[in-house]
Amino acid sequence: MSAEVFTEHVLVWLGPVPLTRTMATSVATSLFLWGALAPVGRAVARTPEGRLAAAGRLMYRFLRNLVTETVGHPSRGLEIFSGSLFLFIAGAALLGQLPGFAPPTTNLAATSALAVLVFLAVPFAGIRARGLSGYFKRYFQPSPLFFPLHLVSELSRTLALALRLFGNMMSGHLIVALIVALVGLLVPVPLMALDLLIGLLQAYIFTILASVYIGAAIRVGEEEGA
Amino acid sequence: MSEHTILALVSIITAGLTMALGAIGAAFGESRIGAAGMDALARQPDEAGAITRNQFVALAMVESTAIFCLVIALVLLFANPLLPAR
């Protein structure tokens, strides 16, 4: 068993640019999602009464409820952003059950990239919803003394997002790999099921936390008015 | 024992200790969240959706301490800066 926990397997060097396995698996996950969900989208448009369309609508309603309940009102941009995060992480966890496929989320760089996306989306959504001064007023909210605390909380929660996803996905992957190396047949199956469950749960949690962070930025000032 | 053997030994023992001690706190915290969630569900079954959602978020928050311990243990085992690279 080769343990690649923090190191990265480079497939090809394109000049000075390494093409790593995580990049390949990320693209594979995106292609898988596109291939699996494009027919669902077509079905919703063409045969709204069919089963595929019903499944697509159920999925969309789940994501819309998640965003609406965390933000307080429907927000189309956040639905797209959070939905993409959820589908990518869940799709990676699903594909991770294939033999020899390490989900891109078992790589710290990939999960950090997702967390940085959330980190950047917070001021973007906040400024778009509240304006520049309206958004940055939040950092000085109870008193200007709290400014460094707000900064530290933004950075530490981004770090926690990345490390939480990485730790959960990598631990499941490592445990399955260890048991496979020890026993091999059939014994790892319950652990793989647990790994899949944890992967889907982490996708849900990552999405909820991202929605909560972005929703808090959108709702700056609403609490004082209420 | 050479210096590197001692370092490797201490790293392995520390990784185990990190995980063991880190799991205790998270386990206690998560059990309390689970108990409180069940209590709230029994009192207000109508609010099951909101309770479950908030419970999952709280569980994830508490669990991250154990996950940080896991990452530190993994660093000690697989990316130890004091040991020579394999």
UniProtKB/TrEMBL annotation, chain A:
GO CC annotation terms, alphabetical: plasma membrane; proton-transporting ATP synthase complex
InterPro entries: ATP_syn_F0_a_bact/chloroplast (IPR045082), ATP_synth_F0_asu (IPR000568), ATP_synth_F0_asu_AS (IPR023011), F0_ATP_A_sf (IPR035908)
Keywords: ATP synthesis, Cell membrane, CF(0), Hydrogen ion transport, Ion transport, Membrane, Transmembrane, Transmembrane helix, Transport
Segments passing through the bilayer: 80-102, 108-127, 174-194, 200-220
Pfam families referenced in this protein's UniProt entry, alphabetically: ATP-synt_A
GO MF term list: proton-transporting ATP synthase activity, rotational mechanism
CDD domains cross-referenced by the UniProt entry: ATP-synt_Fo_a_6 (cd00310)
Coarse class of the protein's main subcellular location: membrane
Signal peptide as annotated in the record: none
Origin: domain of life: Bacteria
PROSITE patterns given in the database record: ATPASE_A
NCBIfam families, per the entry: ATP_synt_6_or_A (TIGR01131)
Name of protein: ATP synthase subunit a
Gene source species: Myxococcus xanthus
Lineage: Bacteria, Pseudomonadati, Myxococcota, Myxococcia, Myxococcales
Name of the gene: atpB
UniProtKB/TrEMBL annotation, chain B:
Membrane protein topology class: Multi-pass membrane protein
Cellular location(s): Cell membrane; Membrane
Site feature Reversibly protonated during proton transport, where: 63
CDD domains: ATP-synt_Fo_c
InterPro entries: ATP_synth_csu_bac/chlpt, ATP_synth_F0_csu, ATP_synth_F0_csu_DDCD_BS, ATPase_proteolipid_c-like_dom, F/V-ATP_Csub_sf
Span of domain V-ATPase proteolipid subunit C-like: 13-76
GO cellular component terms, A-Z: plasma membrane; proton-transporting ATP synthase complex; proton-transporting two-sector ATPase complex, proton-transporting domain
Gene Ontology MF term list: lipid binding; proton-transporting ATP synthase activity, rotational mechanism
Keywords assigned: ATP synthesis, Cell membrane, CF(0), Hydrogen ion transport, Ion transport, Lipid-binding, Membrane, Transmembrane, Transmembrane helix, Transport
Stretches that traverse the bilayer: 6-28, 56-79
Family assignment from sequence similarity: Belongs to the ATPase C chain family.
The protein, known as: ATP synthase subunit c
Annotated organism of origin: Myxococcus xanthus
Lineage of the organism: Bacteria, Pseudomonadati, Myxococcota, Myxococcia, Myxococcales
